[in-house]
Write a structure and sequence with these properties.
Elements: E1 2-10, H1 15-31, E2 34-40, E3 57-63, H2 66-73, H3 76-79, H4 82-88, E4 89-97
Antiparallel strand pairs: 1-3, 1-4, 2-3
Length: 100
């Protein structure tokens, strides 16, 4: 089991384009033994302390194996829409972890 946390930073004004990409990418997670555990859109009131820019969204995803994540990343339908991600996402922090 692997866990991935993403801090997603969006280009200003490109939120709708990002949502279009997510409408394709999120359902594909389940095809590869993955589960979206959390999808959070933090606002100024939910931030207790921060020393980095507030992300647009935070995702916590689990996959049964590293290979499942690799297969998800290579999903042909998802890859057809990567241009939407490139148009809308400024940067992503990807943090890998394990459940202790």
């Amino acid at each position: 089991m692997i866990f991935l946390t993403q801090l997603v930073y969006i280009k200003e004004g490109k939120e709708e384009v990002f949502h279009q990409f997510e409408d394709i990418a999120i359902p594909a997670i389940a095809k590869y033994n993955g589960r979206l555990l959390l999808r959070i859109r933090p606002d100024d009131h939910s931030m207790i302390e921060n020393n980095i820019e507030k992300p647009y969204e935070i995702h916590l995803v689990e996959f049964d194996s590293e290979q499942d994540f690799i297969n998800f990343s290579g999903d042909e339908d998802r890859k057809k829409f990567l241009h939407l991600k490139e148009q809308s996402v400024k940067s992503v922090w990807l943090i890998r972890g394990v459940k202790l």
